[in-house]
Protein 1
Amino acid sequence: MFKNIIAALCLSALASLAIADTLYITLEKDNALAVVDGESGTLLKTAPLGQRPRGIALSKDETQLYVAASDDDTIQIIDVATLKVVGDLPSGEDPETFRLHKNGKYIYVSNEDDDIVTVIDVDSKQAIKEIAVGVEPEGIAVSDDGKWVVNTSETTNMVHWIDPVSNTIKANTLVDPRPRAAAFSTNSQTLYVTSEIAGSLSKLNVASTKVESKLHFKIQGVDKELIQPVGVLVHPNDKLLFVALGPANRVAVVNMETFEVEKYLLVGQRVWNLAFSPDLKRLYTTNGVSNDISIIDVDDLKVTKSVRVGHYPWGIVVKK
Amino acid sequence: MKLAHGIIALKGIIKRELWRFLRQRERFIASLVRPLVWLFVFAAGFRSTLGIAIIPPYETYILYEVYIAAGLIGMIQLFNGMQSSLSMVYDREMGSMKTLLVSPLPRWFLLTGKLLAGTFVSIMQAYAFLLIAWFYDIQAPWLGYVTLLPALILAGLMLGALGMLLSSFIKQLENFAGVMNFVIFPMFFMSTALYPLWKIKESSELLHTLASYNPFSQAVELIRFALYGQFNLYAFLYTLAAFVIFMAVAVWGYNPSKGMMVKKGGGPS
């Protein structure tokens, strides 16, 4: 009995220990990569990158980083161990946001100036397709089941549904003005799209590709014009999702069942992108104007710390 | 002075102060309403006033009501200190002060007892305020509510000693309005209770200097850091020094042969 209690206590203590993680953050103005310890929030080092680095992703085996160097018109490949640039991918002009397909083989990149989505084969390092989309493509999301890639076009106000097998558009959905980012629910049945100008979040049924409902954000004491939803991230439990509200300096916590805001969390200025720690205990936000990241305790829904990382932090990816 | 006598006297003083406090329910409510009005009404209108600087002890961005909470705890203790001084003037006018001061125990001991009683009351008020603030999403780490206690004791003693010092200068109850205008309001407004020093500096160098040297500012900072489980050594030493000085002057002020009591003719006969 006593042994069981001790064992249970030890297990509980182990469970409460957060898993150490490393954050890789692109610094848009410093042309650099910031490496931060997620648990302590300590800036470990910075490494040089191409010009205006923004979107960032880890390779499937987590040995390489892909970084969109927007003003160099390329996606750089960085070796995680040495933080050296070891190659490039042909991204097309002005790459900003991109996503790696769940199979780890293809990257989908928005080319804002050319109104296309470029598909890159990671192994051959070749652009295998350019898909014509709406004006100023921005957000990219890949469903967990790998059946859909969606792109949002800022000026056309549309979501373009791309079949990753044929790399062709299968459907288009009109959403609120300036759709910025998109995220699928973990079960791949729902898509969430943020609209920057409308200050809203649209919920789309993946099966029908139709908008089911919309949520308009309102924050007491904050000017409506400042509430500009951008990055969106779904918690893998499909119960909560988090929306970065740009210059409102808040992250909205949305209950996915009721589709209502549970809480607004105060973070740094112009919060843009979001990422979870591997153990889902922490949520990290990049705050472009205040040059820092905020760390949120996901269980308590409280911001615990904000840490300076460099000028204009933009993209973020987390590695165990 | 025998220890047993001292304890009896101390118990008596604290018991009387507590009894008075508990009987005056409106006083307890008023002591809570004041900071709560500031929190719910005043702070609500200034939610975005602090800008983007992260200042210790805070580790991230905070809303104005989170910042002002420590200042409002200070406000509770400041008003309580002044309330005690008011009650001492009242006691003197009613004659019960004479009963206390003619006891064979040392004057400093009696005044310290009175001070401890007042501080104890202000600590209860402060925790009641924090309990309500908790439901308004002003939540400090759990440990902070423990580390806050010694800070509240020192800040309460310092502000109580200030009140005691003032009461030795006030001849009549009617003069207490002057204390409000010339002590409480300047002390509160020219402090870090409402705005941090860097923000005050943006508007006025003079105000910044005054706020830096205001002992109430240091008491508030001591409370602010303690509430987040941190120790501000400078604020601690400053508050301690202010307490010692105020207390020494108050004891002198209540000395019938040397202090203000004899000069005003109000000392015990």
Note: Residues 265-269 of chain B have pLDDT under 50 and may be disordered.
Protein 2
Amino acid sequence: MKEKVLSIPTPFGAPLDFYKNTWGKSGDTLSIVSGLQGDHLNGMYLNSRLSQFLDSVVEGIDPNYTLKGRVVSFPVANLNAIQSGSKLWPYDGLDMDLAFPGNPQGETTEALASAIYTHTADSYWGCILQSAPPHYEDAPHIQTLKVDGRIKKLCRDLQIETARKLNEPTKVNLLHHWHVRDIVAVTLSAGSPRTLNRPQCETLFQGIVNFMVAEKILKDKRKLKPEENTKPQFYETNDEVAVLASTAGMFLKEMKVGTSVQKGQQLGEIRDIYSGKRLEEITAPEDGFLITLRQYPIVYEKEPIATILTPKKSWREFLPWS
Amino acid sequence: MQSQSIFSIQTPVGPPVEIIRHTFASQSLQPSKRVSLVTGLHGDELEGLYICHRLTQILKTLEEQDASAFKGEINIYPAVNPQALETGTRLWPFFSNDINRTFGRTEPPSLPGEMSSTLLEDLKANSDLVVDIHSSNLHLMELPQIRIIKKFEKKLVPLAKLCNVDLIWVHPHADIFESTLGYNLNQAQIPTLVIETGICLRINKNHCAQIVLGILNLLRKTGVLDTDEPQVAIPEPKLLQPESVTMIQAGNAGLFIKQAEVGQTVSEGEKIGDLIDPVQGQVLEEVRSPCSGLLFTLREHPLTLKGAPLARIATEGSA
């Protein structure tokens, strides 16, 4: 059900109406938020895909599932930035994910942030859908601020292969405030800003459906034999290796995100734009999983080109009989 | 004056991006404090650059004529976000992130993060006292003021009083401050004053002259400069605690047509402006002061959304 949660007057026309979707009336709530950055299209597409799916479940059109729990979604959080086709709304230049918990009496972005926070504050689970930072592409993965039993279960239920623990970047973003309220919350990241990658969205869509079935928000009416669960690999912050450019120019990539790389393997090269000459070969400094790669070719010196996740060896692997 | 590049990176097709530090070295065998001035964290805030220009001019001349006046060290970082300054935009356009929200943060790795980290470490290594000069954003005009987070009040207020600002505003802590330069330096036990004045993309020469005088006074009173110039009397600024600041916010969206000027003393009920509906030809709100006091912030950008700040008043009776 699409429901208006806020209406903000605008200087020149009709008010700006802000909506949330809700399915189900009882049970623990899963909240899904996308579009905190106006150019993160994968999250918005994925959220609309989930809306279509949940509508069909509730209307009885989908033959396989029935809804048992409650789901709330905010598909377009930063309305004005989305309408402007930019990460931030040019009028205030405010990063919405630095505006939480928001202020109901404040300006538009703060008021929207407050509405999202208020309407999701009683959730049991929370999920933020986003893309990589500007100029980068992420392989589909889970990001979390902590790794406890409940988060591990959430990640297992999502059946997405890669989970990264992030250092707490700031106390003013939505994920932090959900954690403060003891909501079991993660961010799902895939792709790059300003682009839509439907296969990546499909991976995350399937993950969220898996999660809803595992947590009994959805009931799968089919008597399917449970498939073997994908166990996520958890990476700590010190498992991450940033690969930096030591020259400036045009980066031409040779790899795709979401692939394994070996130490010394070429990730791409940087060329001088005037001469076309190769200035630098960018190689993987360690074996690992390529989680993030430069997508926008123009690079400055010292910019990160890639992030590789390098699982630390278990102590068992050092035993003499291993 | 010695100049040093503390950060330099190659750019894809243009000259390198550099952060420069100018140093006026102490000529004393027992140097007193090291004071650093920082401007240009936001590329559209130009008044700090003009203040640094005036101070550099004065200090260079003094150095030529009486180098022994420099009992302590003065460092000036006049343009710390060069690419944003060159485009006249608040943010470094290539990255679209606010440098003054990256201090003390290590993730995600980024060039602006690398830059802010280098600047922070350089300031820590070369300063006993820092002054970080800002203008307001595009929307609000501010009287020259120093803003201090409550927990740093005791250490900073006596220093702020030397700077010839109109007011010192002690305000509560908010989480968003934790990634700013000022907060991180103060946390590192380096007293840092954050000056806020005027409006971005403009230079108010009177306000700038007032602050130049204040910083020269600060340098003399802290023993960094010792000249035989007669001391200029610096008026005591208003000291505002959070409860002595009244903010007026827009209750509607429209165009704000101001009818007052920043720096004016207003009475309770006095008209500050109108909020109009430009399409329907209606006055949506007559904006009046809810109290008597000094109007120290006033909306300059007419385009106004509901909830936007229109004015701040230092209520009468505040020190």
Note: Chain A touches chain B at residues 8-13, 87-88, 91, 93, 95, 98, 103, 105-108, 110-111, 133-134, 166-167, 169-172, 237, 242, 244, 247-250, 273-274, 298-304, 307 (CB under 8 Å).
Protein 3
Amino acid sequence: MLRLAVVLLLAFMTLPTVVVVAVSFNPTAILSFPPAGLSLRWYANVLTYPQFQRAALNSVLVTGMAVALALPAGTLAALALERGRLRGRHVWAALFLSPLVVPGVAAGLGFLILAAALGLLRSRAVLVAAHVALVLPFVVRSVWVSVRNLDPALERAAASLGATPWRAFRRVTLPLLRPGLFAGLLFAVVVSLNEFVVSLFISNRVTEILPVAMFTYVVNYTDPTIAALSSLFIAATFVVVWLADRYLDLGRVFLRR
Amino acid sequence: MSFRLLPAVAVLAVFAAALAALFRWSLLEFVPGSLQPGGLTLANFRAVLAPQYVGAIRDTVVLSALTTVLTLVCAYPVAYALARTASRRVRSLILVLTLAPFFTGAIVRTYAWVLVLGNTVVTWPVPMLFTERGVLVGLVHFSMPTMILILAAALSHIDPVYERAAASLGASPAHVFRRVTLPLSMPGIVSGGLIVFAWTLSAFPTPELLGGGKVKMIANVVKDLGLDSFNWPGAAAFALLALALTLALLTLVGRLSSDRAA
Amino acid sequence: MTTAVVELRGCTRDYGAVRAVDALDLAVHEGEFLALLGPSGCGKTTTLNLVAGFVEPTAGRVLIDGEDVTGRPPHLRGLGVVFQSYALFPHLSVRENVAFGLRERRMAAAEIERRVGDALELVRLEPAGRQRPSELSGGMQQRVALARALVYRPRVLLLDEPLAALDKKLREGMRDELRTIHRSVGITTIFVTHDQAEALGLADRIAVMNRGRIEQLGPPREIYERPATRFVADFIGASTVLRGRAVAADRVVVAGGTLHVGGRALRAGADVELAIRPERLRLVAAAGDNVLDARVEGLVYQGAQTEVTARLGDGQRVLVFVGEPAPVPLAVGQTLRLFLPGEAFMVLDDR
């Protein structure tokens, strides 16, 4: 009984993915299922559509810059949260996680108004700033878990053996934080690449990132080009999640066992 | 304050500035046809409750409540299997299938439902796409990964020995579930339910694409006012309404979980 | 007089409102093996951390070789520390762990190689050099931690409950090994423990700590045989404390009987507390000097001996270890005649 329910529910979870992939090989612009044949023309369309090329480049730029800024900032914050002599630790932790709970439309409109006031409506800077804030909670959380699992005696041991605080950080702390940093990086990249709502408010045709370009396409056209692009996204995501599970044991990350 | 906090604090400061701008504009008068606002006013908040918007607020609350209940029911068995399976393989399979949509992003997922609900795969006996039914299906699917993870975390904290103890006392599997497992997983159910409800209240891409302009939730109203009518003050008031509802609910989650800890 | 290797002068350490270490004075001498012994929360680990530099004193000074090191960070103090959890770096092999301190001292690779080999030989772990710490047993990890702390020949070795994580059998083996290593290296050592058997068996001197202060400092035999305070008498070994009244400089009345007490001169008329070890009491047949009657309340058979709890006429409780086989059959409710030798009494300071 339970097993059947679980299988059916997992099928419900996976159904849209399967349909998207199937439709992406549809030979005609009119959607049909199962497809009448196999064709790669929509994949060719994805790769040659100029707006997608521009948006993909924007995605790489924005995500790259946002993650490059958020990773060190979040790591330092996580270290301070666990190790620093900090008053109101819980308040700080809540603050760093707070961008997660602000509805996308509120943050998006806020950044739009702010950008207009600063005359930055045509700039990628606002997009990057917003993405940094949105991925920061994921970095702080992932690294924090790693810091918490770190025996403070290890840093003391390094100090007792003659390592300066910086050397102790380089030789002991940083190598042991690697799983947390990797998980933080993974989350940050995935969240930033998929960010849609906030980006919709603060980008235009020139600066828009891939999800925004896809949204515009879906609203205006009905051919399976988006299915092809989605399939590429899904394939990349599956590889990433599978790798993450293999090397990070996601069960441990999420179930705290 | 530690100097190590400074970079993160700078990031938060920018975020806070955006929210402050939102708050300020919600109190400024909208001048149609102009991006320049007028003087201070409370008119935007009064407009939130105008007849043409009350429907959207009601739909939002009803859809969110239905989504929460349906997601709970659908997520529980999967979460249970995830928390209780002994095989690492099965656990990985469920996790990957659960997390993959979590990682695929809103647009891909919603577009996939446009295909499924739009009579391409099967012909639905009742219209699905661009109806509240369709939006509901999309919202449930969207909320499942979050709910599964929260419930599985709560369930994995329950020692299976309680279930064995109940069985040894003569409880049938159904009774074990109702009298032991379910009550012990209540913390996860409550916080999962509240979090999903809060998230759904400000859902945007799902109702936008699956509702096709016929189903409006609060976030869609914000987008219509802000991006299409350039009524930033009006949009700001609606966005603050969404923010206030979300914060109120999440404060409740925090209050409940700290009560349990005490 | 030679200067102490490690000296604490009036060290106090507060954690918020809690005073972990209270105006502590302590001097550790060259080559000495000193144990800090006490129950958890007595301040012994904080004292060790004050020496190591992980914790700075709220008041007072820390001296190493007569030099004031208060405020100097731990990596500049040149001490060796073995942590309770061992704190072996999980991402480094055994050899790399041992080499860590040498590399921080920018030693030549060949020299590092040689010294690591020597250190691993000292703790008999040469074959395990390439393994990760997590692949070793608890006892082996302990020896790696010791090698890592000794390899750069620190001035002082600090051991924080190093045997606590081991099971009983291993603990005894490691105790002997620690003693052997200390003897062969001759390094000044401070050792924190809550286990009196460890302290009595290993240390040259023991500092018994309670509530952030040193209750008594002295060689193990002195601590065991002449505890200065009731706390020390209670904490070290089993003992019975009897209350009585001195009637002469060497005579105390307890429960109606008169006891001749050796050692220190008492003030007649004063209330005194006498401690006696249960293994010093003997069963006798006839009444006489230093003999009291007691009614048996409980018996715990332990193989080599039986632990007898009995009550004197005035209700005070006495603990007696009777060697097996017992001279008379023991039963609850029976009255025993106990001989309490005068030289076995320890007169406690009145506090």
Note: The interface with chain C takes residues 151, 153-154, 156-165, 167-168, 171-172, 175-176 of chain A (CB under 8 Å).
Protein 4
Amino acid sequence: MSAGKLRIGYIPLVDAAALIVAVDLGFTAAENLDIELVREVSWSNVRDKLNIGLFDAAHLLAPVSVSSSLGIGHVRVPIVVPFNLGLNGNAITLSPRLYSALSGLADGDIADPKVSALALARVVAERKTRNAEPLTFGMTFPFSHHNYQLRYWMAAGGVDPDEDVRLVVLPPPYMVESLTSGHVDGFCVGAPWNSVAVDAGIGRILHFGCEIQARMTEKVFGVRESWAIEHPDTLAAMIRALSAAANFAEAPENLAAVSTAIAGRLGVTPELVGRALTGNMKVAADGHLRLNGRYLNIGKNGAARPDPVQAAWIYAQIVRWGQAPLADESLKLAQAVFRPDLFDAAVGAPQPLGPDEPGDGIGAFIGPAFNPADIAGHLMYWRIKHPGRPRLSLVR
Amino acid sequence: MTGTSKPSLRDHRSRAGGTAAESFDLTETRKGSDSSSPGSQPQGGQRDSTLKIVIVDESPIRAAILEDGLREAGFTQVQRIAETHNLLARVYAIDPDVILIDLESPSRDMLEQMFQMSRAVKRPVAMFVDQSDSASIQAAVDAGVSAYIVGGLKKERITSILDLCISRFNAFARLQGELDQAKDALADRKVIDRAKAVLMKVKKMSEEEAYAMLRKTAMNENKKIAEIAQSVLTAAEMFK
């Protein structure tokens, strides 16, 4: 394999935008890189093929880059992240039935996650009194922000995600079908699947991921640490190509070209892709729109530069939900996965972030500002028994 | 690799504390499966027939080929799951020792949930957890299959299952390849026959002459006869 030839695994989702645009619109070719993008069907496959060297790099769930590097739930393979494929991009979608149940019990505007979380707690309590089956929610992987965002939201309202509801892993293409069949009552997934559910009339988007946390590194460009060490020049060229592609993808005048390229890889219409890219999302079958410029950020708001605070946040969620014990050593390892130094070396020092960006780098809708130096304090906060917020079984 | 991953699994277990009843301690799980087969034979012998194996594969033919192979090898408790609906619940109900899954199945991610502490009944271990035998892992991935194995099973016992699985998956791929080739050949044949008919009609040729012309043109242009035949048909369509 020549130095500039790379096999890169990805899952067909809009948040692979920077990667798809880099390859399909000529940015990698301009860096003399010969890329084979390999479409995969499961995150497990992407992770395993990256781990054993069948892929040089991959479109990864950000939490998988951390769990893989720490060896949580799986074999330990150190991964480095020199480039973020984007911030945010998920949404929580409910069946129309659950949505109206929540609306009926909401004390305020249901578009506010504080209000909707309390409404969910009321629905859950009401179901318990009549011994109804617990509500079931779909998410894409145990180590994913889909999992963590659902949990963060529910727990804020006093719903214990491990005791009061069921969370099930579902591959994104099965989400819509599972909502239709009633197998799940809602889900958290990336684009375009929420929009597909809305268009089919079987789902209503309740919250964008960016309403749960304003800045969340959703997907990353990950490589094995050993590969990064052996191929520094190829990696730098790849970062430059991705960076150019991410900037291109954010320019409004390129929307049509970018949507078309991504749609071609995903097998959906460019219009569907465009909704996620612009953040102008149809949230209900009646055509109701909600616009949020943070819905999915690829090249703007410093989205592409890896931030170790994000890795620490991921680690905090891993610990909060009982996937690993808290250890300083693990926190250090987790933060070292995200490599702003590699990013800066390839494309130069970053622009300072704008004044609207959250001070703690996360911007969660509830809870104290996140301090990566005090994960224990973050977890302690969630242990406090607020009224209507029971002890969470896994946080002892 | 193994050395670094296993301690962390142990950490989970010791931390799990209160859920000891449904612990996924590797040793305990092994005890559990041993006690379910009392008077067990020396390892690798009769006892293997008691292993519960689940095959998750959306291709019914390949799953059947694999099941046959496993049964021939003496494994009597083999079940197939083709439907992915409620996959995890069904896997838990069967409570298998080994799960074999097609790598092209998106449901693989559902199985990963079995690794979660709060859920596990018996704690399964992905084949990839033990990277000491990277050649066989590579062979499995190339063949398109992955295995989840309940902790505590001896590696040698798994290797024979995995080897069988790899060879059956490869055999299926070969069959599929031959079938595709045969289909292509048949399709080519139809195109050539139609092109011959066009030439015979337009150029008043015999069948032999028409075929000879196609073949000669193909040789001159360094193309396949079927490709030339397709060009003849396309041209004929345009001149209609």
Note: Confidence is low (pLDDT under 50) at residues 1-46 of chain B.
